[in-house]
Amino acid sequence: MALTKHFLVVFALLLVSNICDGQGLKLGYYRKTCSKVEAIVKKETTKIITTAPTLAAPLLRMHFHDCFVRGCDGSVLLNSTRTTQAEKDAVPNQSLRGFGSVDRVKSAVEKKCPGVVSCADILALVARDAVSVLKGPFWKVPLGRKDGKVSNATEALNNLPPPFFNITQLKASFASKGLNAKDLVVLSGGHTIGTSHCSSFTNRLYNFTGRGDSDPALDSNYATRLRRKCSPTDVRTLVEMDPGSFKTFDEDYFALVAKRRGLFTSDSALLDDAQIRAYINRQVATKGSTFFKDFADSMVKMGKIGVLTGKNAGEIRKRCAFVN
Ligand code: HEM
Ligand SMILES: *[C@@H]1O[C@H](CO)[C@@H](O)[C@H](O)[C@H]1NC(C)=O
Ligand SMILES: *[C@@H]1O[C@H](CO)[C@@H](O)[C@H](O)[C@H]1NC(C)=O
Ligand SMILES: *[C@@H]1O[C@H](CO)[C@@H](O)[C@H](O)[C@H]1NC(C)=O
Ligand SMILES: *[C@@H]1O[C@H](CO)[C@@H](O)[C@H](O)[C@H]1NC(C)=O
Ligand SMILES: *[C@@H]1O[C@H](CO)[C@@H](O)[C@H](O)[C@H]1NC(C)=O
C-alpha cells in the first residue's frame, strides 16, 4: 500500500516535470487566457515577412540578442531612458531592426487579450514563425516568460559574442548561457539567412596581420570578391551571408563554412574544433539531414535562458519598448 502510494507520487512528479518545461515555461501556457495567441502571431508575422522577406533574419537575431542579455525577457525591445542607455543602443545592436514589426504583432495580440502575453514570448514566437515562413524548421515554443524592467547597453556589450571571437571564446560565451558546442554550431546555422554590414568582417579582408594580407582562414577567391564589395572603411554596404539564398532558411551555411567561406571569424572558427568540424562535415555530406531538427531543439534551449517566470518575477508589458 505504502509502496503504491510512493509510486503514485513519483509518477505524478514525473508527469508534472514533463508538462512544465524547464524553469516553468510550458507549451500552451496561454491556453485559457489567450487561446488564439499563436494564431495571431503567426498571421501577423506571415503578413510582415511575406511583404518584406529580409525582415525575417533580424527578427531571428533579435531573439538571440534578447536571450543572451539578462535572459529572454524582452529587454532588447526596451528603449533607452533618461538615465540608462538600452541594449538596442549598444554597439553590438549593429543593424538590429524589426522593432516596429514586434510592436505590430504585440498590438494585434493586445487587441484580443489585453495585458496577458509578454513581449518576450511574442518575440520567441515571431522568431519561430519568421524562420518557418522562409521554409525553415518549425518548433513548439514553451511559453510563460515575463518581461524584465531593465535594459542596459553595457550588458549587451559584455554578453553578446562579437564577430571576431575565436573558438575558445565562442564556446565560453555559449557555455556561460548553458549552451554547449553543438548548440553553438547549430545556432550559428542561423547565418543561412540575412545580411551583414561590411564593417563586421572588413578586418579579415585588409591588412589582417599587418602585412597587407587577408585572413588565411578565409578562401582567397572569396576574399577578393568581398573586397570588391567592401572598401576598408565601408560601414553602409550589406552583404548576403549565404549568397544566393539569403532569404531561404536551408543548410547551405555549413557548405560555406566547410569551403572556408564563412563571413565572420566566428563562422570560420567553428572549423577549429574537431567535434564541431565533424558536425559541419556531416551536415555537408548528408545535405543537412539533422540540421532542422537540431536547430529546433537548440532554439527551444536558447529560448529558456534566464527566463523570468512565476507570479513575482517581471511583468507583462503593455508596450514592448517601455516598462509599465
Ligand atoms: C555564434 C556567435 C554569433 C556571432 C559572433 C554573430 C554575429 C553576427 C554579426 C556580426 C552579424 C551581422 C550584423 C551586421 O553587421 O549587420 C550577424 C547577423 C545575423 N545573425 Fe549572428 N552571430 C552569432 C550567432 C547567431 C545566432 C545564435 C543567431 C540565431 C539563431 C544568429 C542570427 C543572425 C542572423 C539571422 C543575422 C542576419 C541579420 C540581418 O539580416 O539583419 N546569429 N550575426
Ligand atoms: C523607441 O526606440 C525605437 C528604436 O530605437 C524608435 O524608433 C522609437 O521612436 C522609440 N519610441 C519612442 C516613443 O521614443
Ligand atoms: C549597466 O551595467 C553595467 C555592467 O554590469 C553596470 O556597471 C552599470 O551600473 C549598469 N548601468 C545602470 C544604469 O544600471
Ligand atoms: C544602435 O546603436 C546606435 C548607437 O551605437 C544607435 O545610433 C542606433 O540607433 C541603434 N540602432 C537601433 C536599431 O536602435
Ligand atoms: C582566443 O583568444 C583568446 C583571447 O584573445 C586567447 O587567449 C586564446 O589563445 C585564443 N584561442 C585560440 C584557440 O585562438
Ligand atoms: C598594415 O599594417 C601595418 C602594421 O600595423 C602598418 O604598418 C601598415 O601601414 C598597414 N598597411 C596599410 C596599407 O594599411
Report what the structure shows.
- There is one protein chain.
- With 324 residues, the chain is mostly helical.
- The protein has two domains: 19-160, Peroxidase, domain 1; 167-301, Peroxidase, domain 2 (Orthogonal Bundle).
- Helices cover 44% and strands 2% of the residues.
- It has 13 helices and two strands; from the N terminus they run ααααααααβαβαααα.
- It has a two-stranded antiparallel ribbon.
- Helix 2 runs antiparallel to helix 4 (99-112) and helix 10 (252-258) packs across helix 12.
- The longest helix is centred in the N-terminal third of the chain and has 18 residues, at 2-19.
- The structure holds protoporphyrin IX containing FE and 2-acetamido-2-deoxy-beta-D-glucopyranose (5 copies).
- Protoporphyrin IX containing FE (HEM) binds next to helix 3, helix 8 and strand 1.
- One 2-acetamido-2-deoxy-beta-D-glucopyranose (NAG) binds next to loops.
Helix and strand run: HHHHHHHHEHEHHHH
Largest sheet: 2 strands, antiparallel
Mind telling me which CATH architecture of the largest domain this is?
Orthogonal Bundle
Overall morphology: globular
Strand order of the main beta sheet, please? 1-2
Domain count: 2
Which SSEs are present, and which pair or pack?
Elements: H1 2-19, H2 37-51, H3 56-68, H4 99-112, H5 119-133, H6 153-159, H7 167-175, H8 181-188, E1 195-197, H9 220-229, E2 238-240, H10 252-258, H11 265-268, H12 274-285, H13 291-302
The protein binds protoporphyrin IX containing FE (HEM) and 2-acetamido-2-deoxy-beta-D-glucopyranose (NAG) (5 copies).
Protoporphyrin IX containing FE (HEM) is lined by residues 57-58, 60-61, 64, 94-95, 161-163, 165, 170, 187-188, 190-191, 193-197, 200, 264, 266.
